[in-house]
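hiii, so i know i said id send this last week but things got crazy w the move. better late than never?? heres the sequnce for the chain we talked about at the cafe, plus the structure i predicted for it. fair warning i was half asleep when i ran it
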Amino acid sequence: MSRKSDLEESWRRNAENWTRAVRDRLIPSRNAGTDAAIVEAIVRRKPARFLDMGCGEGWLCRAVAEKTGCAATGLDGTAALIEAARAADPNGSYRTLSYDDVIAGAPVPNAPFDVIAFNYALFEEDIVPLLRAAKHLLVDNGVIVIQTLHPDNDPGDGTDGWREEDFAAFENEAWAKMPWYFRTTESWETVISDTGLSFELVEFPRVGSAGDPLSLVLTLTANE
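okay and structure toks below
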């Protein structure tokens, strides 16, 4: 199997574990500030329509809708995660659509959007086609917000390349290993340039004012 297929299989096999980990707040970095960081980055834009790409079990849609009253839409390629999102939010808008579907031009409900988010949801090597497709789902002056691993926190050798998450921290869970692609700061700059997007804001959420960076948050606008 390819790494892409392995990644998709990991999401399918881990859907129940992911849902439990998110809802029971079992992931320390999320509690330390990454959840709050992505919510703040979105809410400050006061979106009327919001899209969470790779929404998982839907927590971010629920959080943003609660704070802004916006129409929130969630897309994910894993049917079990969309089922979990719908169960938690029966009145919400959730659709099983893969990234390949979006790239191919599949209709996205409720488009166009003021804000589109990828919250720890860009794990493949080639993400340029997806970001280009997402750009065309924005209203004028809309933004794409990405939260990802801070480059200083790479568990590897500090160069671009594939990594593997084995979820060893969850000792009491049966997790399928997940491949994911790490990017340096320079690589992110190249990707964003290639998509026809521009940096509006680059943020480094931290634990306290002088703590280590928890993540990298990018707010991007479409070039003219």
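btw The longest strand covers residues 138-148. thought thatd interest u
miss u guys!!
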